[in-house]
Amino acid sequence: MGKTIGELMEEMRIKAGAQNYKGHDYLDLARFDENTRHMIIFDVLTHDSPVGFKGDRMRLFLADAGYQKALENQERGNIKILSHARVIRGDLFYDRKDQVR
């Protein structure tokens, strides 16, 4: 019997090296929102971070405004962005091949 679409997608996710982090799941609906332009994976460094708790590793799918806020929080030292991908219609285009996934 054939595999379901969900099973095939999970296999592709694992082959792509995706991990489960706090925040958005790899196939979260936010990934497919028409305003989503960025996916970031980051470590929360301080208790002052507006998202997550110190020590968390998180994944978020963001619109441009949310990504700008993430960059500002990185400048303040609240988070460290480990990975960034452009999101186009749900497809991820990583900045570099060697990034955390």
UniProtKB/TrEMBL annotation:
Entry superkingdom: Bacteria
Database matches in Pfam families: DUF5720
Domain DUF5720 intervals: 3-99
InterPro entries: DUF5720
Protein name, UniProt field: DUF5720 domain-containing protein
Annotated organism of origin: Caproicibacter fermentans
